[in-house]
Amino acid sequence: MYDQFQFKKDCSNNICNTDLHLSSQPNYQSSDGALIIGTPDLSVDVSISKTRDPSYGSMFYMVVPSFLQYVRMQTLLGEGISCYMLAKGQQGSHDVAFDWQEFLQRTNYSVNNDTEIIMQCNFGNPMYSDQGVRMNIFFRLPDIIELESFKLVLFATTQSNEVFDLDNKAIIDIKLKHVYTTTLTG
Fold first, then answer.
1. What is the pLDDT of residues 87-115, one digit of tens each?
2. Which long-range contacts (CB under 8 A, 24 or more apart) does 22-29 make?
């Protein structure tokens, strides 16, 4: 038997109707728009704003290739943002299994367990400001990548009633390019 607790929310009839808006921009050293393999750094500038009621239980997820190494998150706007990597097979506490289930319920995204991992960021409980939050997330790339491209999939979610969810997901396709320098001496 489970008891449900209702928390008092700052919304009419305790029902919040929120409209989150996600925008993102990758930053990396490029040649013809493609990320140069061998350059170690990739960052993603993420902005999440809202209109209407406060957003309760706000959560941001980014699905990334497992070869990317999370370095850090820098808060550019807002406060109380915390991020961590979430892997399905992780050993540990009950919280990891709960977070994984919550990710699946919130996004309905099918993760490839062999090649993808998930970053989760808590960013507002509640988020009152329409300006929202902005963060820069930094990753380290390996020296060798045997792909032509990879993608990042981003989701902004809320436990409030989402009014218009079509702008809550972004897919960033990153093409890869080998750049070779040759020096001839003679």
1. 665 544 445 556 778 888 888 888 887 88
2. 22/46, 22/47, 22/48, 22/60, 22/154, 22/155, 22/156, 22/167, 22/168, 22/169, 22/170, 23/47, 23/170, 24/152, 24/154, 24/170, 24/172, 26/152, 26/172, 26/174, 27/136, 28/174
The pTM of this model reads 0.84
Q: Token digits for 155? A: 């989701």
Q: Measuring CA to CA, which residue among 159, 178, 117, 164 is closest to residue 22?
A: 164
**How far does the chain reach from its first CA to its final CA, in angstroms?**
82
Q: Tokens 């988020």 correspond to what residue?
A: 127
Tokens linked to 35 = 């990320």
Structure-derived torsion over alpha carbons of residues 171, 112, 123, 44, reported in degrees to the nearest 10: -40
* Tokens describing residue 42: 């990739």
Domains and CATH numbers, the chain: 17-177 (2.60.40.1510)
* 63-95 residue pLDDT tens: 999 999 999 999 999 888 989 887 665 544 445
Instruction: Give the helix/strand (H/E) hosting 96.
Output: helix 94-107
Place of tokens 């032509």: 148
- The answer to whether 44 touches 172, Cβ cutoff 8 Å, is yes
Q: What is the rounded CA–CA span in Å between residue 158 and residue 171?
A: 19
